[in-house]
Amino acid sequence: MQFDIIALGEPLYELNQQPDGRYLPGFGGDTFNVAIAAARLGSRCAYVGKLGNDPFGDAIAALWAKEGVDASAVARHATAQTGLYLVTHGERGHQFSYYRKGSAASLMTPEDVPVDLITRAKYLHVSGISQAISETAREAVFAAIDAARKAKVAVSYDTNLRTRLWPIETARPAIEKAVALSSLTKTSVEDAEALIGLSDPSAIAAHFLKLGAGAVLVTLGAKGVHVATPSLHAEIEGFSVAAVDATGAGDAFTGALLSELSRGVDLFVAARFANAAAALSTLGYGAVEPLPHRATVEAFLAKH
Q1: Which residues contact 227 (CB under 8 A, 6 or more apart)?
Q2: What is the pLDDT of residue 146?
Q3: What percent of the chain has pLDDT over 90?
Q4: Mean pLDDT over residues 5-26, rounded?
Q5: What CATH number is attached to the domain comprising 50?
Q6: Dist. CA 58–CA 71, nearest whole Å
Q7: Which of 97, 240, 246, 277 has the most crowded Cβ, counting Cβ within 10 A?
Q8: Is 2 part of a structural domain of the chain?
Q9: Domain that holds residue 264
């Protein structure tokens, strides 16, 4: 089978705080969210990672089956647990608390990378979080990138910097190496400020293009996204909605963008579609539950 998108990383079980203080169960993990987001938009997706042999792993596997995401390359670890995280909400927005140390996904190694599966995709998607969960996972990310590039599969990379997982001094060279090998890099102003000391979206994009990225997208929250190629820079305006939880908005954007690109849509047109999907993903709680289907995004765009 041929795939549009193969994502590699760590699937997580989510507990998301509700207005009444209770926690709503769900799912998350940045590359995991991207795969689900793209699948809901009609893309053929597969996932590469590891789960624990526990109820949380069972729930994630059931979700993949429901959403039509191929999980044939996901191993179940006999003793390590599936990662877990909590989302709380306050005046400063959403905050994450992770319980993933020693998780099954963090034990991933280059030997776990399914080269044959990757060669059957249009896009491989990986991230800074995929790299940060362990040294062996970092090596697995680069092994997957190498396999993709050898097979002329486009590489999508999200910086997704998490300093609680690894220090800037370790993250910066690994992230910049991945950016240099990417066909498409997505970052944010916040990530770029910490990584390279730049806050201007155009300057950020220019820096990453100079490293070797084929195209760069700098997300600007509700304001939209700055899209850059070596020949053109443009800001694509975002959409104003009554957001309640932006937990998965960035991943909704990436999943929608890759879904459109895999259909042959122009990068700048795809970015507007992705902005709409990201906005819609903030209308409910959790990283996965509010991810929109294609008909919903198209209906939204028809009114805007």
Answers
A1: 205, 215, 216, 217, 233, 234, 235, 236, 267, 268, 271
A2: 98
A3: 89
A4: 93
A5: 3.40.1190.20
A6: 12
A7: 277
A8: no
A9: 8-302
Distance separating alpha carbons of residues 129 and 145, to the nearest angstrom: 15
Residue 256 token pair: 């929608």
Residue 93 has pLDDT above 90, yes or no: no
Inter-residue contact 291 to 36 (CB < 8 Å): yes
What sign does the dihedral 54-55-56-59 (CA atoms) show?
Answer: positive
Cβ atoms of 165 and 132 closer than 8 Å:
yes
pLDDT one-digit tens code per residue, 262-297: 999 999 999 999 999 999 999 999 899 999 999 999
> Among 94-108, 172-186, 206-220, whose mean pLDDT is lowest?
94-108
As a whole number, the mean pLDDT across the chain is 96
Residues catalogued as catalytic: 251
Position 165 in a domain: yes
Residue 1 inside a domain? The answer is no
pTM above 0.85, yes or no: yes
Please give the average per-residue pLDDT across 209-223, as a whole number.
96
Total number of domains in the chain = 1
Backbone phi and psi for residue 20, each to the nearest 5 degrees, phi listed first: -85, 5
